[in-house]
Inverse folding.
């Protein structure tokens, strides 16, 4: 069994065992999910569907699809969250998630100064009691899924 949690979650999606928030949209190369350990509704993650640990390992097709998805997911977050723009971050440094993935985080118009730019990271890895509810995440996931399916036809 692979030690990479991202790979394990991809396998769960492949088996059709993931809730809507953990399987918002699947392209040939990327999975879009809601972050599971955030207090910030709309904190989405694009995960490459094969295990790579650095950007230079992406194929041209993966890179091209990534660019389009970043744009489309940002558009969907503007519609459903009301954000001004999105932040995009990629590290792939966690022991559990060395797999290439991109955080796409809505920047809200009334966002507190302590949550601007990199400081928004304080909303990731929060205790279970502070996390977004599955109901909230599923509702947003289904709305975004519908929009992406329409855009990507």
């Amino acid at each position: 069994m692979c030690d990479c949690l991202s790979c394990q979650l991809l396998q769960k999606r492949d088996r059709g065992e993931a809730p809507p928030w953990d399987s918002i949209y699947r392209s040939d190369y990327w999975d879009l999910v809601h972050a599971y350990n955030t207090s910030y509704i709309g904190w989405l993650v694009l995960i490459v569907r094969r295990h790579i640990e650095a950007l230079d390992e992406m194929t041209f097709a993966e890179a091209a699809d990534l660019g389009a998805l970043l744009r489309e997911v940002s558009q969907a977050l503007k519609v459903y969250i009301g954000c001004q723009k999105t932040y995009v971050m990629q590290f792939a440094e966690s022991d559990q998630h060395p797999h290439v993935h991109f955080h796409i985080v809505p920047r809200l118009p009334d966002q507190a100064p302590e949550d601007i730019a990199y400081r928004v990271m304080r909303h990731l890895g929060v205790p279970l009691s502070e996390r977004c509810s599955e109901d909230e995440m599923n509702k947003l996931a289904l709305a975004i899924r519908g929009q992406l399916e329409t855009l990507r036809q």
